[in-house]
Structure formats: structure tokens, C-alpha cells
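Exercise: predict the fold of this chain.
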Amino acid sequence: MTGSDRLALAAPIDAPDAPVIEIASPTRRDEARGAMAVAAALREAGVPVRDLAVAVRDLDPYEEPLFRAALQYGIAPVFWTQLRVTRTRPYALVESVCEALAGEAADRETLLRPLELRWSPATSHGADPQSTEWPIEPGAVHRAREALPAASRSVPEWIEVIESTDGVDDRFRRFLEWLDAAPAPEPASVAALLGETVEGYADRGLPETKAADSPALLDTETDARAVVRVRTLVRQLRHKFADRLEEGTLERSWSDVADLAGVIATQRPGRREHSNARALDVFEANDVWTLEVPYVIAVGLTAEEWPNPSQSVLPPEFQEAVLRGEGSSEALAPQPAWVGGRDRDQFVDTLRVAERCVVVTRHTRTPAGDDVARSPLLDHIETRRISESSRRRLVGTERELPPALREIVGGESAERDERPEGDDD
């Protein structure tokens, strides 16, 4: 690889076919509100919702403010994003059960963790489906933590401790008896016991999430998706655990079961996909390259979000030397992430999919009041910046499209009017 090839990782971005309009807002929430105000104003101007899409490099910091802004403007958003299952309660519950079964003894915190995560007996295993005693309420778990000793014990010893300790709910003993009856970790028994854990959560834990959720039920949706994903994970775990045992790369231990579950979970297959012709699609930028959409709203064009700063432990001076191929570093392969190569490609894809216009948004300060720089990716293209007064009218009660965007929509309307009869889709 020559020096010019290496530096081509950061080559200038070709001008997009569609015009680019830039909107700067004070905060991230203002930015999300502005993005959804654009979508709402375009809808009012006659643009079908199927002709709109929102793209974000990373939805994690933007999903919640975009969701709230969408509700404010009466828009139904659909977020197409991978589920980070390891961050969900159903996965944490399965992991905590494995940890409680691992080894010959468990301390108080390890023992109580599944109950904190709403472990419940599945109704298919004899629990009364009408009973409200499960899951154990947080207050009862807290009282048990105060009453029980902290030192590690075997499960039978913990049962004796609970039976001799005043003020500890009998449900704790029943949970410990369930642990004590757990079979040795074999592929079939792992699937059965962890499957029972997931079904108990679906029966008892998920309704708790719904009861505590906001009217939008965003947490409930995530929890329900996680239940489905962890069910699949448990089925995969049975087969992969059998394969690893046959290969001799794992032992028959619950700790190894937990480790293997983590490996499967972090592969993060599957996406949240809805077929809803009336909803506004919100994508991560990695997923827009196959689309063709007239209007794209690209959110998060700041130097801290897009491109995402490299987290390499190598000094910037060394990275630059490798990129330039200077001296002995010529034999080393550079990482595209050093120059934001992956984020750059996703930005280019976002520009390419837009047929009529790209609206890029950014915010200018953090919640602490620190300045947030404009994305360097925008330096490669020509944008028409919207004034602050136009932005205020856009997000205000008037919901007035900025003049630059109004010209584009007006031109599209004129094109529609000039089409011969029968050409309209």
C-alpha cells in the first residue's frame, strides 16, 4: 500500500447529487426536536411519510430524544436498530441464575441478584397464573439483604439460614429449593432450566415493566423484544454448548454456560423491523446504503458524534506515521477507524440515498454548556445553513419550513403538477 493509498482512507467526499441543508440547534434535545419538526413540516407540505427517513450514526444517545420529539409532533417513529441484549433485564436474569449455580458456594449478593431481576416460577411448572406473589417486590429483597449474613454458603446451607432467620419471606426459601434442585449443566438441562427462567420472566416480570412504563411503552417494547431474543439465545445455547463439550473447549460448569451465553448474545443478530407504512423510519447510518429515499434527515453531525473519535490506545503521532507509510511503518497496515473511514463511508451512503434533499442537523453545546464542534465531514460538502430565526419558526407553532427547504418542496410539487396523467405512482 502506497502512501497515497493509505491517505485515500480520508479522501475528500464527492459532492452529493441532492442539495444539503444544515440546521444547528443549541442542545441535543433541540436538535431532535428540529429533526422531527422537519419531518412534520414536510408531511404537512404533502410529502408522503414513505418518502422520508432519519439517519443517525449511533442511535443510543438519540433514540429517546427523537422518540419524545416525534410524539410531540404527532409522528409514529419506527427505530430500526440492533437490540443490545446484554443490557436488558431478561438477559441479566439468565446470567445471574448461572452465577448463582456456579461453584459450590454463593454469597448473599449473588444469591439475591436473580430475585432483584424478577425471577419467578413459570406458570407451566405449577405456579398459579392468577397469583400476584411473584416476582418478589424490591422492598422484600432489601429486607432480606439486611437480615441475611454476607458470607458465602452452599445452597442447602442458605436454606437452613433462611428457615432460622426471622423476617425473611418464605418465597426466598422456595427460590433456593429451585436452585438446589437444578440439574448438572448438560445441553438439555441448560435449555430446560434457563428456558424456565425466561418463561417465568415473560409471565411475571414483563407485566411489571409495563405497569411502571410511560404511556409510550418504550421500555415495555424493549423488554418484550429482549424476552424473544433470550428465548432464541437459550435454544442456540443448547446446541453450541453441546458442540463445545464435544470439542473439549468448555467444561460442564454453569460459569462456562454463562460465558458462552455472553459470546452468543454479543453477536447481536436480528433487528427491530416493523412493516408500518404510516410510520417514520429511523435508521442507524450503517443500514441506509440499500435505500432510495427522496428526503433524508441526518442527525448528529458533530465532531463528537459523527465521526466517532478513535478510541485507539496508539498515540496520534504513530497513527499518522503509519497512514503516511513513513520509514519502517510502511510495512504496517493502517486502521480505517484512525481517519473515521467507516463513519465517513456511512456519511457518504447517507448522502447518496437522498434523491431530493438531505437535511443535516447538529447541536452546538453539551448539557454542561461546553461548545460542541461541527462535524469535519461537513467541511467536504457545500451546505445551506438555516438561520436561527428560521429554526425557531420551524420548531414553533407555525411549523414553517425554512425557505431553502420550501424551495425544494415547491419545485417537487411543480414537477408533480406537470406530469402527464398516469405518470404519478
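Check your answer against the key: The chain has two domains: 3-81+274-418, 87-265.
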